[in-house]
Amino acid sequence: MSGMFLQYNGDSLYLAAFAACLGFLYYQGRKTGSSTGKKAVAAIILSAVLIFNEAAYQIMGKVTDATSYYRFFWMLPVTFLIAYQFARALFCGKKGFVAAACLLFAVCLLFGANFFFLNKQYCNRPLNIYGLDPNTITAADAIMEDWGRQGQKEKPQDAPVAAFDMYLGYQIRTYEPRIHWAISRKAYLYQAKHGYDHKKYVRQQHIIAAVNEGKKADSAVLRRCLEKNGVDYLVIRTEFDMDSYLSEISVQPIAKSISYTLYKVNHS
Question: Which partner from 35, 67, 124, 185 sits 20 to 30 angstroms from 174, CA to CA?
């Protein structure tokens, strides 16, 4: 069960704050004779049996995209209960509750992971509030800057289409959602399971080979795939040394980050 929490950002103090709020809710129920606390504890026990375990994860994965949506089964009750307890403590008018809520909030800010505006690394609101890889910010900013110079930034329907490796793709979505993925998540998952069988997501598999692994296959085939998918940019690890290979198909480097090179696809 602990592995399920940790997999979905459960390594912060959200769970500690949740446990404290749940215990306080149970204490309040005992003190006032209410059954709310008992119901909350019963719900958590049932959740541990029916949801927060590997078996439930595997079963749900058969009918839905568990790797994307499973987290909501625990995120929603955790965040709502914390918010409820904080709001109740702050507005109930009792100084003891207010002090306890402020203390718990301060602990989360000081010792939590990089999910807060204030933490051990910053004394004010950080620019990189999500703790993203610096490569993500450099690549996304360079794409949007170049795209803007083309006079197309005012047309949301014509947003830039870029191909990234799977790691950078997830981070780009968080930082700059205006950039469209040239490689779908399902194509990446299919390729990871079946390899390059080219039976499904054929065009995207050729692009995956280039950006994810630096494979230098038939450049003409890659060029056709880029055109068919409407790809405007490629972001590839610099260590793959793709400059000369991509130059054959009119794909030129225009910017570099710490570990990646940004290439622009020149459309005729």
Answer: 124
